[in-house]
Automatic annotation (TrEMBL):
InterPro entries registered for this protein in UniProt: DUF1697 (IPR012545)
Annotated source species: Tenacibaculum jejuense
Protein name: DUF1697 domain-containing protein
Taxonomy, superkingdom: Bacteria
Amino acid sequence: MKTYIVILRGINVSGKNKLPMQELRVMLEGLEFSEVKTYIQSGNIVLKSSKEALEVEKTIKKGISKTFGYDVPVLARTVTQWEKAIANNPYSEVEEKQQYFTFLSAIPEIKYFDIDAKEDTYQIIEDVAYVNAVGGYGKTKLTNNLFEKKLNVTATTRNLKTTLKLLSLVN
């Protein structure tokens, strides 16, 4: 059994795609995932499965569609991949509230594009776009939609606190 950190995009945001975490846990256990834990209401999951990551993503995506009627992007990472994403953070020296991890569904072909994001900066390392949002994520132009459009991948972002908390839930 492998442990996965699974993140969903667009759950419980501004009243859209409401998905109660207790009901999500029940659904996941029904799909034969074990030791299911969720964190806050925005689609953060830690679970165990004998399946490979892509199969975990497909199974959860299909389960959410069937159970709740939502087409939700799902990204699954192993603990090793999650730890590597944290270790690769080029912004670890800036203020915590400025650090964001935009997890990508694949390693993009391009690693840089021009964008006037004022003081905000980003770096793409493997399948993560690291964002230094000086004024906070709510004000940055470096959004999931931008990365999806420019890189032709699915993207979902977590702040540093959530990224670290999800790793702590593994143990």
